Amino acid sequence: MSVSDQQASPARLAIPELLIGVGLLACAGAVAWQTLAIPVSPLYSKVGPTVFPYITMAGMIVLSLLLILAAIRGGWQPEEEKETPTDWKAMGLVAAGLVANLVLIQPLGFTLASTVMFVLICFGFGSRHPLRDALLGLVLALAAYFGFAKALGVNIGAGLIENELNVLISAVFGGKGS
Amino acid sequence: MDTLSHLANGFAVAFTPTNLLWCLVGTTLGTAIGVLPGLGPALTIALLLPITYQVAPEASFILFAGIYYGAMYGGSTTSILLNTPGESATIVTALEGNRMARSGRGGAALATSAIGSFVAGTIGTLGVAFLAPTVVKYALKFGPAEYFSLMVLAFITVSAVLGSSSVRGLTSLFAGFVIGMIGVDLQTGQPRFTFGTAELLDGVDVIIVAVGLFAVGETLYMASRRYAGKDEIVPLKGSLYMTAAEWARSWKAWLRGAAIGFPIGAMPAGGAEIPTFLSYAIEKKLSKHKEEFGTVGAIEGVAGPEAANNASAAGVLVPMLTLGLPTSATAAIMLSAFQSYGINPGPLLLTTQANLVWGLIASLFIANVILVVLNLPLIGLWVRLLKIPAPQLYAGILVFATVGTYGISQSPIDLVILYLLGAAGFLMRRFDFPTAPVIIGMILGPLAETQFRRAMTIENGDWTVFFRHPLSLTLLTLAFIGLAGPHIWAWIEHRRRRGPEHVPGDA
């Protein structure tokens, strides 16, 4: 199973894989720091709340060292994955869409924030019809808001559009819709 | 006999109009998300978890089970027509199924896969109904030590034995443990891993983790890979009816697939990859039409693995319902739905929640019937779903991801955690770390910890208890063999071939 991984012909240090191993080691450090911060009552000293965190930490240290070792031996990425260039522009646009959603969801409400995100992600994936996407995003977000959220009884951030529509719906259905 | 009367009772629960409706909604939704690449049953059930606050447990589990089974049916359609396996279990279906579609026999491939799924799903569900009470009899004898060791075995099999690397699988599992420990320790009331923030006291919701890893991470990955080649949909040609020869070649493969899939799924190891690959290998060996494998596509190579996949999906429900032991990401999320109702899945579930369990099992039979109807005469509808362009599909997935996450507590902090997990999910996808062990680790980790501490408290802190109980020792030994066995084997092979001077390590 894992045996085929190490067959890289000339073993060269793989930087991305090394960073992942080091990152995991840092996570193990954070786990250690947080475990030390758990107050332990002497009553539970035998099998208290820190036993499992310590086991987890030990496991993470061993695993990160094994990952670093694998990285030094040339990493484990398959060739085709290494050769495909990362489309940073597309990823950046998707990330921008996510951040825009995060920033706008409180001031503008769910629907408008989601529409902005929808347009940016579509653009990132290569769609070149922002207006059509905006309309589609708006319809989908409204459907998600009224269908999904209302049906599940989940309360998601209402903004301008939602409030107007809620007022409209209560006016039409005599208050049952809200 | 007992099982039959319980089952009759279950059908009485499942045949109420509302529950039938839930089953119909679940199977339809399940087929749709199975067909759509990028959406899976784990993500969908996670997004629908809030429904557990609204409806009776029977209704939500019938819905979830319909989604679970439906996704299997839908996934094979995508594999056959698009050659993009939605999930690892349908990789094998794509091998022969897509070749059949390319040589104009897509209709027969879809038919054998749907009917095979029905046959195997029904056999598998029968297996659940008859095996579950037997497993419960043994499970009632389990103490905390045995439970803990069983969970260790499950941890090892889902993360280390299945998948491409045991180190990366275990890394995912341990990441899940850390996420699962965030929040207040239930036994002592101490906050753990909260970094001093109040938001983390309640822990991280499984919805956020599933959505982050499966929706946000997947979208980022697909965006980064946009130039890696586009898939084309093979137009559906040929009739949906199988010829007599095709029936003759299919039915044995269905039965063999079900016979392989169910037992492997029902083991506390789970996973649909091993049974599907095994079934494929067997069909290839037994087939009288070996020349069709890998060329024009052999119907046995679709029928067997599809049956194995569905039977093992049913098998996974056995440890889940009898031991509270989920062995797939979807089962882990269903377990958290049980917890949301305050129900503890375990050996007592079958007696204390008889209506729920038997209603669920009965609804699975009904779901299979609905699904074969949905997926054969209505196949054209699902093919149309495949034509949704990628930009709008992924953007839409993220809109629903936001609804599901932001709806939990209307806190932007949740969105920040979601995006961080999404970035982690992207890296995991990019560097070949499996994501399912994270979900299993975060749900099952705290349960394992509880059993561990319970066992230790009973024995006054003497950890040898895990090795003194024979059953517990056996389970731990099996776990050790699962972890170390392949490496020892590889090492012996290596020595035999190249001589003793070079010692390979583990990657």
Structural features, described:
The complex is a heterodimer of chains A (178) and B (507). Chain A has 178 residues and is mainly α. Chain A folds into 2 domains: 3-83; 88-173, no CATH class. In chain A, 69% of the residues lie in helices and 0% in strands. Chain A has 7 helices and no strands. In chain A, α1 packs antiparallel against α2, α4 (88-108) packs antiparallel against α5 and α5 packs across α6 (130-152). Chain B has 507 residues and is mainly alpha-helical. Chain B has one domain (2-497). Helix content of chain B is 72%, strand content 1%. Chain B has helices at residues 2-14, 17-35, 41-47, 57-82, 91-102, 106-139, 144-161, 166-181, 206-224, 244-266, 273-286, 300-315, 317-323, 329-340, 349-352, 354-375, 379-385, 390-409, 412-430, 436-458, 465-468, 470-498; strands at 183-184, 191-192. Mean pLDDT of chain B is 88; it is low at 500-507. Classes of the chains: A mainly alpha (178), B mainly alpha (507).
Summarize the structure.
With 178 residues, chain A is mainly α. Chain A has helices spanning 15-36, 51-72, 79-83, 88-108, 110-124, 130-152, 160-173. Chain A folds into 2 domains: 3-83; 88-173, no CATH class.
